[in-house]
């Protein structure tokens, strides 16, 4: 049985995620996890909240709560929203877990033993107005690489270059805006990534089938300018994983914590360990190639801004440790989803957030639109017009309408059981062929994680059923040849079951409703299309489901567009 390890970029803890975050990481990861399970893989699907760092501290301060308490509450909020969107994590952990403390401290010790960590006195920005050292991303200024004037001290979001705050031209505090900054000396641990450059380069070259978006970002960071830089992996903060060498104090590092970007990806492993501790499972057979993980295929999902950390920094930790850890096999990255003429923004509260989305429509509407418009080859824009028209066309007119017509017609002419009589003719044989061909294409796209193509193929599979029904016209055939109409409707009911199975990774709730209406728990993936379309035998009872997808009205669309045009506080 193939074994697939899937991780989604960790949602940061400081607020509810917007639809851009969702479609750039957790949702496509869920799609793939569901698909792999349906194809019989043994799947481990891990996600967690990313809880350390200054934004969490500041958010907690704003909420008037101790940071640990704030994070615990926000974890629950994010967990509930993930459940609301049907995200089928095997475990949704926390980067602040004891497991992650231990593993992060372990990796730091290993890297030190390998000669890859150096203690350096560094100059760090201290803000007099704020009374504290400013973490990298809280120093803003002009990028020395491209001249963008709102570059952050950790990274320029314009040119993606990894920066240090002291690289910035005309720096200012992002917390207070103060330019009364002083560079003070403090000691920190540095991970000597430059020593790992050639090894990482070779490792990237071995990854033959990675998306161009992923490898181009990684190569740029490896080779542009002076190449891959050594990286400070500790910070002068209170909240985080204490700097220890395994379980012993690290001289000179008292009172410091690891940098959030060092501990966050390690949480993929620690999250699996949390799962193991909760269930009695074995996490090492997913992560240690000496303990059974050598047949695991590991796939990561993330937005493009996270690529450097996953394609270089995290592999630097794993390879640098010289222990047999599983590294990523396929790194699926996404461009950005923009919102109605601008960008989604958590800090500005701009866009639609996961809680708001669920408050106006069931999750499958969002899942379908987001996945069928996922920003794979370029940035994509969410507009209410496009959302309403796609949902209405694809889900209501094509899929929902098919289910409704077939079940209601059957109930009115034959009753609520699969009708007996008649046999398949040329039209049915042709449909089997069409669907078998389309299914092969659908699988190929899903296997390659080409999500838009997969969505288009799934839609075409729905359309094929509609066209068959339109041509067969059982409502007309019924008058002269009720047996023929029975065979046609039997096909229609079996198509509904087939659609439930194939659509499940995209729209799991509707899929469950369709299976329930068909009175079956048979959700086996169709290995043989002909047999799959005969799975519901004559006499099998079904019910007419409630409306699967109600159409979005123009009034609703305009109302939502107005309601979500501003920012939330
Ligand atoms: N507009 C977007 N479209 C697609 N993916 C996005 C978008 N914004 C963020 N992401 C991705 O969402 C995932 C979770 O991000 P995270 O919780 O760290 O928020 P973030 O990147 O800080 O976003 P924001 O700045 O809007 O809060 C990451 O993989 C990130 O790359
Ligand atoms: Zn720049």
UniProtKB/TrEMBL annotation:
Zn(2+) binds at residues 143, 146, 156, 159. Its cofactor is Zn(2+). A motif ('HIGH' region) lies at residues 11-21. GO terms for cellular component: aminoacyl-tRNA synthetase multienzyme complex; cytosol. Monomer. It is an enzyme of class 6 (ligase). Belongs to the class-I aminoacyl-tRNA synthetase family. MetG type 1 subfamily. This is Methionine--tRNA ligase. ATP binds at residue 346. Is required not only for elongation of protein synthesis but also for the initiation of all mRNA translation through initiator tRNA(fMet) aminoacylation. Residues 5-406 form the Methionyl/Leucyl tRNA synthetase domain. GO terms for molecular function: ATP binding; metal ion binding; methionine-tRNA ligase activity. The gene is metG_2. CDD domains: Anticodon_Ia_Met, MetRS_core. Pfam families: Anticodon_3, tRNA-synt_1g. InterPro entries: Anticodon_Met, Met-tRNA_ligase_1, Met-tRNA_synth, Methionyl/Leucyl_tRNA_Synth, MetRS_core, MetRS_Zn, Rossmann-like_a/b/a_fold, tRNAsynth_Ia_anticodon-bd. Its EC number is 6.1.1.10. Binds 1 zinc ion per subunit. One of its GO terms (biological process) is methionyl-tRNA aminoacylation. It catalyses: tRNA(Met) + L-methionine + ATP = L-methionyl-tRNA(Met) + AMP + diphosphate. It is found in: Cytoplasm. Keywords: Aminoacyl-tRNA synthetase, ATP-binding, Cytoplasm, Ligase, Metal-binding, Nucleotide-binding, Protein biosynthesis, Zinc. A motif ('KMSKS' region) lies at residues 343-347. Residues 418-569 form the Methionyl-tRNA synthetase anticodon-binding domain.
């Amino acid at each position: 049985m193939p074994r697939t390890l899937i991780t989604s970029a960790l949602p940061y803890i400081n607020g509810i995620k917007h639809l851009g975050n969702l479609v750039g990481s957790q949702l496509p990861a869920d799609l793939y996890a569901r698909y792999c399970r349906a194809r019989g893989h043994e799947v481990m699907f891990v996600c967690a909240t990313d809880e350390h760092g200054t934004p969490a501290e500041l958010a907690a301060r704003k909420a008037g709560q101790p940071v640990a308490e704030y994070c615990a509450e926000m974890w629950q909020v994010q967990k509930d929203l993930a459940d609301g969107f049907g995200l089928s994590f095997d475990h949704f952990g926390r980067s602040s877990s004891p497991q992650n403390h231990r593993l992060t401290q372990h990796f730091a010790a290993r890297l030190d033993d390998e000669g890859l960590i150096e203690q350096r006195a560094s100059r760090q920005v201290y803000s007099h107005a704020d009374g504290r050292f400013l973490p990298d991303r809280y120093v803003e200024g002009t990028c020395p690489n491209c001249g963008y004037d709102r570059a952050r001290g950790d990274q320029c979001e314009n040119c993606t270059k990894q920066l240090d705050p002291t690289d910035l031209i005309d720096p200012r505090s992002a917390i207070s805006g103060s330019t009364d900054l002083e560079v003070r000396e403090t000691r920190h641990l540095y991970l000597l990534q430059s020593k790992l450059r050639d090894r990482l380069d070779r490792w990237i070259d071995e990854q033959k089938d990675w998306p161009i978006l992923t490898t181009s970002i990684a190569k740029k960071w490896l080779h542009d300018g002076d190449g891959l830089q050594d990286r400070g992996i500790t910070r002068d903060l209170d909240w985080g994983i204490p700097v220890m060498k395994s379980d012993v104090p690290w001289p000179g590092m008292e009172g410091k914590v690891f940098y959030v970007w060092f501990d966050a990806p390690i949480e993929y492993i620690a999250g699996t360990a949390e799962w193991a501790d909760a269930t009695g499972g074995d996490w090492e057979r997913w992560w240690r190639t000496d303990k059974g993980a050598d047949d695991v295929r590991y796939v990561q999902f993330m937005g493009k801004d996270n690529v450097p950390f996953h394609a270089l920094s995290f592999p630097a930790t794993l390879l640098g440790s010289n222990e047999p850890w599983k590294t990523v096999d396929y790194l699926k990255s996404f461009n950005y989803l923009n919102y109605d003429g601008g960008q989604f923004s958590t800090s500005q509260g701009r866009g639609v957030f996961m809680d708001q989305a669920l408050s106006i429509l069931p999750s499958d509407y969002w899942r379908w639109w987001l996945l069928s418009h996922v920003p794979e080859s370029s940035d994509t824009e969410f507009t209410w017009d496009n959302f309403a028209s796609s949902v209405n066309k694809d889900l209501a007119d094509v899929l929902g309408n098919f289910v409704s017509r077939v079940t209601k017609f059957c109930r009115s002419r034959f009753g609520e059981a699969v009708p007996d009589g008649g046999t398949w003719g040329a039209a049915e044989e042709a449909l089997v062929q069409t669907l078998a061909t389309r299914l092969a294409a659908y699988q190929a796209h899903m296997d390659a994680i080409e999500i838009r193509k997969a969505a288009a193929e799934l839609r075409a599979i729905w359309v094929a059923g509609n066209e068959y029904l339109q041509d067969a016209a059982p409502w007309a055939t019924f008058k002269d040849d009720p047996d023929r109409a029975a065979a046609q409707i039997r096909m229609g009911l079996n198509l509904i079951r087939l659609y439930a199975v194939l659509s499940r990774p995209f729209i799991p709730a509707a899929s469950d409703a369709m299976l329930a209406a068909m009175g079956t728990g048979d959700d086996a993936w169709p290995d043989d299309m002909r047999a799959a379309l005969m799975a519901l035998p004559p006499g099998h009872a079904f019910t007419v489901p409630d409306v699967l997808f109600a159409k979005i009205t123009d009034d609703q669309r305009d109302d939502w567009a107005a309601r979500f045009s501003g920012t939330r506080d």
